[in-house]
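I hope you will forgive my troubling you with a question about protein structure. I set the record out below, with my sincere thanks for your time.
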Amino acid sequence: MRAIASRMSVMSGEGALSVFARARELEAQGRSIIHLELGEPDFHPGQSVIDSAARALAEGKDRYCAVVGLPALRQELAAYLDRTRSIQVDPANIVIAPGCKLALFLAMMALLEPGDEVLYPDPGFPGYASITLGLGAVPVPFEISARNQLQPDPEEIARKITPRTRMIITNSPGNPTGTVYADTVQRAIAELAVQHDLWVLSDEIYARIIYGGEYFSMLRYPGMAERTLIIDGFSKSFAMTGWRLGYTVAPPEVVPALAMLAVNSYTCVAEFTQYAAIDALIDREGTTTRMVGEFARRRGQFVRDLNRVPGFLCQAPDGAFYAWVDITGTGMPAEDICRILLEEAGVAAIPGAAFGPVGQDFVRFSFASSMATLAEAVERIMKISAAWQGAPAAR
């Protein structure tokens, strides 16, 4: 029998999507399920964005277009990054993609050789390790742990750099912990990248969703312009998940490689969605600011409520919209907790090990749902918490 390519056996899916599938099965059986497993804002783009897409379609903007993206969108993105992150980017160095995942995949494909080592955060987005393995490279995790206030440890990263290290992946604010990397931490990582001549892939998809202070992109540090690729998009900051719009900011010599990969994969991104994206970036209605303000209110309520649940311990995240809950006080494995939450309480959440071994004693909840929904979720959890109260002490 003909075999599937061996790379498929080393790649992995996402725990969130697995939990979502089971939650849908229960809903099909008539169960009421509160979905706190997916990282999807419960908002929608502003009306002007919808109108822009409709107008572009009406004007016939549904044709093949520039492989790397519409010049007008790339120009607007450069202005947006200057305005919101204080980084100066040449529009020619921006490549538009149909979603951040593909942008991430193609950036790694352009830069990695089989056997190269890639440093990435654990816990972190599952795609980092999966894509690395699929390309024949070697994922090397560095910890995002409570003992270091959920910050990367530059000394640990330095110890793990070898002659085969090719890339460091950073993710601030981070999924699943909500960590916003401290300036001192990012500066130290940047210095390591320069010292060892490494690529840095900076996943900044949650950059607009922070709860205080100024956001610092990896591109702002000395020596990083020639080695940093920013991955970002419209799903989180603009609540445009189904529009599938992402982009890469890359050094000039990498852009032709990304364009070549685009030619050989998706050809171009839908023209009318790119016109709508221009309007989203301008954000005349202040949609993103209002959305982040609402997330901040939900964060405050939800974290307080979760900390009332016996055995739960949660720090308020600095960014993104995830509550990262330490469940060691329950005396039960996170997988069992999540099974009980879903099957008995009708609350879908993700066991932390889905994001890497360091997350094994945690559960991730998304608070991208209404205040009323989050309050009901905690009420349901409280009602079934007797399932673990009195359980033996955690390992």
Observations:
- The chain is about 40% helix and 15% strand.
- Residues 287-306 form the longest helix (20 residues).
